[in-house]
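Subject: two folds for Thursday's group meeting

Dear M.,

Sorry for the delay on this. The cluster queue was jammed most of the week, so I only got both jobs back this morning. I'm pasting them in the order they finished. Each block is the input sequence followed by the predicted structure tokens. Could you check whether the formatting survives your parser before we put anything on slides? The first protein is the one we discussed after the seminar.
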Amino acid sequence: VQLQAFGGGLVQAGGSLRLSCSASGSVSSISDMDWYRQAPGKQREFVASITDDGSTLHANSLKGRFTISRDSARDTVYLQMNNLKPEDTAVYYCRVSFHDGVRYWGKGTLVTVSS
């Protein structure tokens, strides 16, 4: 299974970005698709997740600004990020989980928010 994330970059505070992450390979039984992030010098933290039936969970601190969605037909998960703040600067990672419990991480995409 390979995960390829796109959409990171440099944006000014208050701006928006949309991340996407597509899974390829043996992806016939993906259950959850998640986003995590890791800021410089900090531990990786949960951002949002979405199940195969579309149920979502967002980190409390990001509710209202970040929205996760999914196109199961394309094995792709998205993260819409609005009103970005400098503290959102991080490497954003996607993760997929299969029904058998196996998980894969993507390589991450860097988001830099300038003040």
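Second protein, same layout:
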Amino acid sequence: VQLVESGGGSVQGGGSLTLSCAASGITFQDDYSIAWFRQALGKEREGVSCISTSADGPVHYSNSVKGRFTISMDSAKNTATLQMNSLRPEDTAVYYCAFVRGVVVETARLSDALFDYWGQGTQVIVTS
């Protein structure tokens, strides 16, 4: 599976950005999950949001983005989109999408160990 992220950039605080993660090379029919992680300079990688192709699957948001970010999945295009609104300087980071076969059950903290494939990352900079 290959993942290609797009949509990063620089925006002023309070603004919006949309990130997309397109998956290719999927050779199975099972449900799968795509998540977004981010890593700010000098900080640990943080799980931001996760969604699956299952209609009944959970959608996960970290507390730091809940109410501001929205994740969606276009199963026909194998693409997950992260709409980021009300951006803050502390949202500045490299954002990575990650993929795993199956449905990730929502947990208190999204673990990067759950995911098998990763994108190359896209930079998001939010200025004050």
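Two things I noticed about the second structure. DSSP finds no helices and eleven strands in the chain. The CA atoms of residues 73 and 92 lie 23 Å apart.

Cheers,
T.
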